[in-house]
Amino acid sequence: MKAAQIQEAEGEFQLVELDKPKPKENEVLIKVEACGICHSDAFVKDGTFPGLEYPRVPGHEVIGTIEAVGDNVSSWSKNQRVGVGWHGGHCFECEPCRRGDFISCQNAKVSGISYDGGYAEYMCAPQEALVAVPDELSSVEAAPLLCAGITVYNALRNSGIKAGDTVAIQGIGGLGHLAIQYAHKMGMRTVALSTSDDKKELALKLGAHHFINAKKDNASDKLQELGGARLILGTAPSGKAMTSVIGGLGVDGELLMVGATPEAVEVSPMEMLMGRKSVAGWPSGTPTDSEDTLKFSALFDTKPMIEEYPLEKVKEAYNRMITNQSKFRVVLKP
């Protein structure tokens, strides 16, 4: 089979021929139909994920069909269309797993990091990592929803917001353009926060009721004019940008961070205390959370904006994503 492989940290993608893998007893073999390129794939490209072993094939937004099942697999069948997201398996034995908190597994696997992922024609995955895919979504449409989609959908639905609440989406990119759609379709008064008027028309088209240019105006003041936000979903990976909008939270408001960045977010304890405000983060979710994301997306016609590339153009595709030139998700089609 063909695969796009990274040989070493900070290496370039190499298009290689590998033996098609065989599934272990608790795994399935997937013929890949589509694989999204995610900013987190930089962990493999740059060698920054702890314990990463090379060579490695990245990819954790995978949709395909099962070609073979392991001896111990009984709940998944050949030719079934499935997905594999960031959460690539869990141990079932650690304390979080014993409590059913699989996303917090102390020995969790990550697709495309712990084992070879979807930048290939085939891959194997543990059965507990599999996601059932609804017929209403194409493989290309569904792939980015297994990371970008679930990240914002799961954060929103677990935040405690109620229909009619003011929800601000900070950043209109790969995560943000989906978050605007989800928030609108969940019944929220949706506010889009960006640093460019170029995205205003798109934000309103996606479902935003209000648009704030945080570069021209004080976003916190503008949010307060709307009564203060019950929730600000931080999707742009910038600690400085997230810090700048905390003042826009209303009473009991929360800044919920999903945009991964090592940059610090600064908060004033007095500001937090006086308004019972909070700052928190949310990880993506388990395969069943991914299924909920796909079902909601299919039901309410929520789809990512994507650019498609063949596997042979992986370098070009990755560069479009990593330099923020893509609108808004990039998908490989082996």
Provide a quick synopsis of the model.
With 334 residues, the chain is an alpha/beta fold.
Overview of this protein structure:
- With 334 residues, the chain is α/β, with parallel strands linked by helices.
- It has helices spanning 42-46, 95-98, 139-142, 148-157, 176-185, 200-206, 219-225, 239-245, 269-275, 287-299, 314-322, and strands at 2-6, 13-17, 27-37, 62-69, 81-84, 122-126, 130-132, 166-170, 189-194, 210-213, 229-234, 249-257, 278-281, 306-310, 329-333.
- Strands 3, 4, 5, 6, 7, 14 and 15 form a seven-stranded mixed β-sheet that branches. A six-stranded parallel β-sheet has the order 10-9-8-11-12-13, with helices on both faces.
- Strand 1 (2-6) and strand 2 form a beta hairpin.
- The longest helix has 13 residues, at 287-299.
- The protein is globular and about 60 Å long.
- The relative contact order is 0.15.
List its traits.
single chain; alpha/beta; 7-stranded mixed β-sheet; 6-stranded parallel β-sheet; 11 helices
- Major β-sheet profile: 7 strands, mixed
Number of strands: 15
* Beta-strand content: 25-35%
Number of helices: 11
Radius of gyration: 20 Å
Structural class, by secondary structure, is alpha/beta
Overall pLDDT: 97
Distance between the termini: 10 Å
Low-confidence stretches: none
Give the CA-based shape.
globular
